[in-house]
Amino acid sequence: MQDTTIDDRKRELRNLLDRIEAHPERAFAEERKRVAVLQGMLIAHEKTQG
User: Fold this and answer.
1) Residue 44 CA to chain centroid, in angstroms?
2) Which DSSP letter does residue 27 get?
3) pTM of the complete model
4) Distance CA 32, CA 1 (A)
């Protein structure tokens, strides 16, 4: 099993945001929830890094 890195999370977030932006007519409810989770993880990481 491979560990998930911060760069992996950033890539996933960018991919989700690109998909949402490309199709604004769709709700993307689950994707938006994941965006919020990823943003929280990245903010927490930034706080611990100083």
Assistant:
1) 13
2) -
3) 0.89
4) 26
